[in-house]
Write a structure and sequence with these properties.
By secondary structure, the chain is an alpha/beta fold. The protein has one domain (40-159). It contains 3 helices and 7 strands; from the N terminus they run H-E-E-E-H-E-E-H-E-E. Strands 3-4-6 form a 3-stranded parallel β-sheet, with no helix packed on it. A two-stranded antiparallel sheet has the order 1-2. Helix 2 runs parallel beside helix 3. The longest helix is centred in the C-terminal third of the chain and has 19 residues, at 123-141. It is extended and about 60 Å long. It starts with 15 loop residues before the first helix and ends in a 14-residue tail after the last strand.
Length: 168
């Protein structure tokens, strides 16, 4: 059996040269830059030219991933906590809100008792979330033409937890 390698904590590598030596010692070819580019020079600030959504190019490479919030109303509608989170999505600078919220497609499909439900009675609230996000983005960044927003639709199937209480 080969001898175990000592574990190296990445934060202990204080320089780019230290990091390069470490990955080379592991037999990994992992190129990296000498300095972190910031602002508009950062590759994260650049759009991905090859990807469009409904004909729209996403303005940068920063995305908000879907999450299953525990802060919706018991009836599946939005709350002030959900509004605050969506406003912050807009202020973040991310240009792809990739499902920002996991929404149940029907009440019986919720993964938790406070998950949002996408149904007729909640459409005005869901439209409000989008408007809050777009307005916050426009105010902070001057426009929202390259912003792409979507919802993740879910049904928890055998993992339904409609009666589970928040653990804290």
């Amino acid at each position: 059996m080969p001898e175990a390698q000592p574990f190296t904590r990445i934060p202990s590598l204080k320089t780019v040269a230290d990091f390069r030596r470490h990955v080379a010692g592991l037999g990994i070819n992992l190129p990296c830059e000498d300095e972190i580019a910031v602002g508009n020079a950062s590759s994260l600030a650049q759009p991905v030219e090859q990807i469009t959504v409904n004909g729209k190019r996403i303005g940068n490479r920063v995305a908000i991933q879907p999450m299953e919030g525990w802060d919706g109303a018991p009836d599946g509608g939005i709350t002030d906590d959900v509004r605050r989170r969506w406003r912050r999505f807009g202020e973040s600078g991310a240009k792809l809100i990739y499902g920002g919220e996991a929404m149940a497609v029907q009440p019986a499909g919720r993964a938790n008792p406070n998950q949002l439900i996408i149904e007729e009675r909640h459409l005005a609230g869901l439209a409000e979330l989008r408007q809050l996000l777009v307005r916050a983005h426009q105010e902070r960044f001057g426009g929202a033409e390259d912003l792409v927003i979507g919802f993740q639709l879910t049904h928890s199937g055998r993992f339904l937890q409609t009666q589970r209480q928040v653990p804290f």
